[in-house]
Design brief:
The chain is of the alpha+beta class. It is 45% helix and 27% strand. It folds into four domains: 108 residues, PAS domain (Beta-Lactamase, 2-Layer Sandwich), CATH 3.30.450; 100 residues, PAS domain (Beta-Lactamase); 74 residues; 144 residues, Histidine kinase-like ATPase, C-terminal domain (Heat Shock Protein 90). The chain is built from 14 helices and 17 strands. It has a five-stranded antiparallel sheet, sandwiched between helices. The protein has a five-stranded antiparallel sheet with strand order 7-6-10-9-8, with helices on both faces. The chain has a five-stranded mixed sheet with strand order 12-14-15-17-16, with helices on one face. Strand 3 and strand 4 form a beta hairpin.
Length: 459
């Protein structure tokens, strides 16, 4: 059996700092290493309370851990930074019925390497230009970086109280959930989806979900996301430009091929009408209307093929729209439609090609009329959304356009009308873009459509 002196000799040879306290937290033993590192006046401390010798900075941590070991009679292990010595210690406390045996091991060098790795990880997380975040297995946010806050508009404290589900539009939810659940099962996922910004807008995002695996068990999911809205818009614009080029080349060929026989057909129709008076006049009226329609399509094709370059002049948008309203008023009256204007007199002059903008508003009002076969009202409303632009809205209360079709409007040869060609709306968009403006459509089926046109005031 080892006597007390032999035990103390063994403990003094231990390279770790060691001391023991009784159940009243009084020092009963301090080995040589603890005496040289922690308690220089060790002999005077025996029988005194350890808490009077431990700096307040670590008091709470040590007390919580040691109290647990003493009260629950369980071993505890933890790391702590000892500020007076600027040293990291690994602490182990072993309980007994008479008190605690406590070991302190210097792990500063090991901790330094670990902290450096943690700082590398923290730097990668915090300063990453892409949004980086972590979820638990239920999809609740556990952590987000500043780039995530900037991308989505929500603060970190707001995101940490929610899951990703409220941020995903309904049409994207099933796909996004499927990818998350696969990642939660250990399979990395790469996909594109959409997300709500806090301001109510929708952004396109490219996402990677990576499982967080600890001891061969998935504990959560990492996410990396990038806003690709502008990239997708550029792709769409490039595709549209390619379509316009192709349509322009095709349109020029078709228009020139049609015009010559069209002229002949018009001439012979008029000749036959004069030489055969006994033929039903309605037939000739139908033929003339159809020939006019072909002629209109040909004109639109030629415009798409090569828009006429015209000089921009400062013109009053109010006067342009008034001319269009007067021109369309008789057709509106026939169709039991009221044309109304609001706040246009307050609009400043803008640089434009007046003839082209007249064509734009003729097309838009004509489309609105055709959307209201039972009559109604068309409102043309002016406003100033900013100091350097104006907005004109053409609002009808017609049958509206389904949401899934709005993005297709303006595509070559696409139309929501039974006999439409889609070329009129395409030419309209082309004119607005040539004026450095924008054209947006909002509509609800059965509740009408609003066309928003923004045009710059400056050159």
């Amino acid at each position: 059996m080892v006597d007390l002196n032999e035990r103390n000799e063994i403990l003094d040879r231990i390279s770790d700092a060691f001391f023991a306290v009784n159940s009243d937290w009084e020092f009963t033993y301090i080995n040589a290493e603890a005496s040289s590192v922690l308690f220089p006046n060790a002999r005077m401390l025996i029988g005194k309370s350890m808490w009077s010798e431990i700096p307040h900075a670590v008091y709470l941590t040590l007390y919580a851990q040691f109290f647990k070991a003493m009260q629950e009679q369980v071993r505890v292990e933890f790391d702590i930074f000892y500020a007076p010595l600027a040293v990291w210690f690994s602490v182990r406390a072993y309980p007994s019925s008479s008190g605690l045996s406590i070991f302190f091991q210097d792990i500063t060098q090991k901790k330094g390497i670990s902290l450096e790795k943690e700082q590398h990880y923290e730097s990668l997380f915090k300063y990453n230009p892409d949004a980086v975040f972590a979820f638990d297995l239920e999809g609740n946010y556990l952590r987000v970086n500043p780039a995530m806050e900037q991308m989505i508009g929500y603060r970190a404290d707001e995101l940490l109280r929610m899951s990703y589900l409220p941020l995903i539009p309904p049409e994207e939810l099933e796909k996004t959930k499927s990818c998350f659940y696969k990642a939660a099962k250990g399979i990395t996922q790469h996909y594109e989806t959409k997300a709500y910004h806090k301001n109510g807008g929708i952004i396109d995002v490219k996402v990677t979900n990576i499982p967080i695996i600890v001891n061969d068990e998935v504990m959560g999911v990492f996410g990396v996301a990038k806003d690709i809205t502008q990239e997708n818009n550029r792709k769409t614009m490039l595709l549209q430009a390619e379509k316009l080029t192709a349509v322009g080349q095709l349109a020029a060929s078709i228009a020139h091929e049609i015009r010559n026989p069209l002229t002949s057909l018009k001439g012979f129709t008029q000749l036959i009408e004069k030489t055969l008076p006994e033929v039903n006049k309605n037939y000739f009226a139908i033929m003339k209307d159809e020939l006019k329609r072909i002629e209109l399509i040909t004109s639109e094709l030629l415009y798409l093929a090569k828009p006429k370059a015209q000089e921009f002049k400062s013109e009053n948008i109010w006067q342009i729209i008034q001319d269009v309203v007067m021109l369309m008023s008789s057709q509106a009256l026939i169709n039991n439609i009221e044309l109304r204007t609001f706040h246009l007199e307050e609009m400043p002059a803008i640089p434009c090609v007046g003839v082209q903008l007249k064509q734009v508003f003729i097309n838009l009002i004509k489309n609105a009329m055709e959307a209201m076969p039972d009559g109604g009202m068309i409102d043309i409303v002016g406003s100033r959304p900013s100091g350097d632009s104006i907005m004109v809205q053409v609002i009808d209360n017609g049958h509206g356009i389904p949401q899934e079709l709005i993005s297709k409007i303006g595509s070559p040869f696409y139309s929501t009308k039974e006999n439409g060609t889609g070329l009129g709306m395409m030419a309209t968009q082309q004119i607005i873009h040539a004026h450095s403006g924008s054209l947006d459509i909002t509509s609800q089926k059965g509740q009408g459509t609003t066309i928003h046109i923004c045009l710059p005031i400056g050159e």
